[in-house]
Amino acid sequence: MSLPTNKNTSSIGALTSTGGGVLAEVIKVDGVDPGDIDGHIPLSQLQNGTTARVPRWPNYSVNPDNPDRLKVFFEQDGVKTTIHDQPYTPINLIEILIPLSVALLSQDGVAWLSYIVNDSDSNPDIAPPRKLTIDHTQLPVRKLPEAKFLNATLWGYWNCLTRPVLSGGGWIHILPQLIGRPGDRCVLEWRGYRSLNGVNEVQEAYGSFSKDLSAEDNSKGFDMLIPFPKHIKSLEKNASAVVIYRFYRTGRLVAESEPALVKIDRALPGESLPCYYDA
Fold it and tell me: Are strands 130-134 and 109-118 parallel, antiparallel or unpaired?
């Protein structure tokens, strides 16, 4: 993989941190297989836009009068554009979401996405660039059936009566299908919400989980576990989660499920704290 180069020290390919190395984590892009070094963007994301995710950096400022500064860059054909430039004291943020519009992704070819965090003393932490491949000629993605939430009630809830107990995590079943091939990668995306209908996202509940498929996985289906502490614990009362899973073949998206929703309510009658609050 080659990186874009530029003698200007503000170029993505030339940036270094004050500590002599790259410090920040690579930016993530919704719909792009994390294991695909070429970063193929699925057609649906090209047609509708997608979201990049900058993870909260270590040693962030907690002083609103002396914030850190995040700059995000999009580079294509040697032209670099600043698409985000804002101060932050990200005390209550796990990630910072950066919209990538249809217009931004309209030109086929290779692009690079990166960011810099300047701390309150103007010391830059540099993220390595994320390669993105933009191709509007790719074939449409095939549809997969919705995921199933194991042990949910008839009304579609995970709650304090769920067995096995929810503190051990929530199990999701992927149905058998004829689209996947051995060696395909399944990437399951989990999003939590402070509502029963998938509205008002809880950023800290977000998760992405992957599995390489076998012939048996495709013919019989398989289960995936959503860990409780990081991804379910913050969903307490009248909450929900939405799951979409995707199949990638050599980095290319070949199939995507319809979204599936589970309601989550861990409230206990007469109690101020939800069940498993200390798990």
Answer: antiparallel
Rounded mean pLDDT of 52-60? Answer: 91
Return phi, psi of residue 5, to 5°: -120, 155
C-alpha dist (Å) from residue 139 to 44, 213, 255: 10, 22, 11
pLDDT score, position 3: 34
Would 12-134 and 142-265 be classified into the same CATH topology? yes
The answer to whether 137 touches 252, Cβ cutoff 8 Å, is no
pLDDT at 4: 36
- CA-to-CA separations, 109 to 3, 77, 179, 201, in angstroms, rounded: 14, 8, 28, 32
Assigned token pair, 130: 């994320």
12-134: CATH class: mainly beta
Spatial contact of 234 and 226, defined as CB atoms under 8 Å apart: no
Q: What is the DSSP secondary structure assignment for residue 45, as one 8-state letter?
A: H
Is residue 266 within 8 A of residue 166, CB to CB? The reply is: yes
pLDDT value for 23: 59
Long-range contacts of 7-14 (CB under 8 A, 24+ apart): 10/80, 11/80, 12/73, 12/75, 12/80, 12/112, 12/114, 12/129, 13/129
142-265: CATH, from 3.30.1330.60, 3.40.50.150, 3.40.50.720, 2.60.40.10: 2.60.40.10
Among 162, 158, 134, 10, smallest CA distance to 80 is for 10
Full-prediction pTM beyond 0.85?
A: no
Would you list the domain boundaries of the chain?
A: 12-134, 142-265
The 10s digit of each residue's pLDDT in 152-206 is 999 999 999 999 999 999 999 999 999 999 999 999 999 999 999 999 999 999 9
